[in-house]
Design goal:
The complex is a heterodimer of chains A (130) and B (77). By secondary structure, chain A is mainly α. Chain A has 6 helices and no strands. The N and C termini of chain B lie far apart (56 Å). Chains A and B meet through α5 and α6 of A and α2 and α3 of B.
Amino acid sequence: MKKILLIGLITVSVSGCSTVKGWIPSFWDDNQSAKIIDIRKAAEDIDCKQPQLPQVKKVQDQIVWFQLYSESKGWRQQDVLKIVSPMKETVDDWAKRSADKEGSVTYCELKKKTVQGQAKRAAEAVLGRF
Amino acid sequence: MFEQLQQLTGASDPAVAARAEMALQIAEAYSRQELSESEYKELMLDLVRTDKLDEECSDLEAKTMLVTAVYAVAQVV
């Protein structure tokens, strides 16, 4: 046991704290868990026969809330921030297009499918934490 | 391109199969002129973003698994 602790201590000393920081994941958080499901629900609720912008804004707002909360919580939240970042880019492009000139129904349906998939995968990872 | 994507939809990796299926749907919609060129490009870019998201999720899941294993070992020792 002492040997294992010694090896661990030496590893930490040699590799430095920054490496160790990179290996420690964020842990379970009730608020993040609830919000990632809010994002999923907002994506599921999108109706492509209705105006797209207000619906996309709803998803966008939920993602921004998640980002701000996670940023405020501290450095260990980098992993979940990296997960929501590509989803934010996907939704930002959709909101920008809808604000200029609404996209086609096919575009909306494919975009919805993409965001639904991204939100589902992100929720699995966020809710699967220790 | 359609044939290659069609083949990939049967890939053993479910993530690859799902991504190929989506790319196929986008390409078909574009060929039917149901999407503009900029919509098509944006949707394809989203597939790259989805890959990045998937990678980050797998990374977090691996780290979580490691922590769970270390915790379990600590309980035994």
